[in-house]
Design brief:
The protein is of the alpha/beta class. It has 19 helices and nine strands.
């Protein structure tokens, strides 16, 4: 059995814990060579490396390591020194453990031994963590943090809106047509100054103009202040005064959560776009219709820059969840969308496909054909995303930028003929 073309007579399994790790080494015959518990610190890592070196580990013949998680300092340090690290799903480890014992007994050392034996028997069925560059790993941290902040912002907005529906319809009417709704700086500025409808009704035109200026508005301030004053002066149903005041206190608390979430999303967006522009793959990714700096950074964060990670375009499509999956059993055969996939890459994929409809005539024509063939909107988008992933794989492998005439040759020829 080999890793990257090198013979590996020893396999290592690590059962990860918060303050310690259990390490087991086995040989090609399954014989246990070592079993030790190390601490989760620099001394423990040094002990771990000494143990590996004692059993033949070197840069030329690295010992592969199986661990339950791809995160954490232990895995990061092993990857940094070039050791192949395999992140094995804990559910898969539990199934492997049942091969040796059906008593359902469990210990950390037994779990580590199961991990080591997974590599010994089924190395080809698992892949090591990609050898991504340091910059891509940093982009991945920033992109995922920014995406989490966006999701947190959406949750905070929904909580606030649900609260306002109970007693403050005026603020909802005032920003019903605004592009960002309650997430806008103007709405949050007014809510901070008037967390109850009674307080909003007392806002003067001059005070509203001041709040709009504080929110960063430059044009049309008098007109907008007049509109808001008229909305807040309308007749609405009200809660009892004390109840309304209590709901106002709760609204202020929810507003602070929304302010924090919005600030986090904005700050992280600036950091991620700056890091993305420094990467050599950025021009290729940004050349695709529907991808800008932020969405492009999210795509790069999930696929990385290790060109050996995906052997074919099909494997990349399967990882993204854009390629359909087959479920066949007996006389039944179903073609279904994939459930197990990179959820973050799939999320940005739908945004990518949707935006491309207005940026690429070929993409629009492809989507329309799928809709005419009976595809639902989501299925047609996923099919378009699948096609883009194949193009992206080719462009990254060969260093080419996107070309509409090559991507959609039939549609480009039709458009040229129509123009002529």
């Amino acid at each position: 059995m080999e890793i990257a073309g090198l013979p590996t007579p020893v396999f290592c399994g690590v059962d990860w814990a918060e303050d310690h790790h259990d390490v087991v080494l086995v040989d090609v015959g399954g014989q246990q060579l070592a079993k030790v518990r190390i601490s989760d610190d620099a001394a423990g890592f040094a002990q771990f490396m000494a143990l590996l070196a004692e059993h033949g580990d070197s840069e030329e013949t690295p010992v592969p390591v199986a661990i339950e998680t791809s995160r954490g300092l232990l895995g990061a340090c092993l990857r940094a020194i070039g050791r192949p690290v395999f992140a094995i799903n804990p559910l898969a480890v539990a199934r492997y453990r049942d091969r040796h014992s059906v008593a359902r007994k469990k210990s950390d050392a037994v779990y580590a031994a199961a991990l080591a034996n997974i590599l010994r028997t089924d190395t080809a069925a698992h892949r090591p963590l990609p050898a991504d560059s340091e910059l891509v790993q940093a982009i991945a941290v920033l992109a995922r943090a920014q995406q989490d902040a966006v999701w947190a912002r959406g949750q905070a907005h929904n909580k606030l809106r649900s609260q306002l529906r109970e007693f403050y319809p005026a603020i909802l009417d005032a920003f019903a047509l605004h592009k960002h709704g309650l997430r806008s700086r103007e709405a949050r500025s007014i809510l901070a100054a008037a967390p109850t409808p009674a307080m909003a009704a007392k806002l003067t035109r001059r005070r509203l103009q001041s709040l709009l200026k504080q929110a960063g508005r430059v044009r049309g301030i008098p007109g907008e202040a007049e509109r808001l004053h008229e909305v807040f002066s309308r007749d609405y149903l009200h809660q009892l005064p004390q109840v309304e005041a209590a709901l106002g206190h709760q609204t202020s608390a929810l507003l602070r959560q929304l302010d924090t979430a919005c600030d986090n999303a904005d700050q992280r967006e600036e950091a991620i776009t700056q890091a993305f522009e420094e990467h050599p793959d950025a021009p290729v990714i940004r050349s695709f219709p529907g991808l800008a700096a932020l969405t492009g950074a999210r795509v790069l964060a999930e696929i990385g820059d290790d060109r050996t990670r995906f052997a074919t375009a099909g494997s990349l499509k399967a990882y993204a969840g854009s390629a359909p999956g087959t479920r066949a059993s007996g006389k039944s055969c179903k073609i279904m969308s994939r459930k197990v996939k990179s959820q973050r890459l799939a999320a940005v994929g739908y945004v990518w496909a949707f935006v491309s409809l207005t940026k690429s005539p070929g993409a629009r024509a492809h989507y329309d054909r799928r809709r005419a063939a009976g595809y639902r909107h989501v299925a047609a988008q996923r099919n378009l995303f699948n096609r883009f992933m194949g193009m992206l794989f080719h462009c990254l492998q060969n260093g080419h930028t996107y070309d509409e005439t090559i991507a959609f040759p039939q549609d480009s020829a039709v458009l040229k003929a129509a123009a002529a």
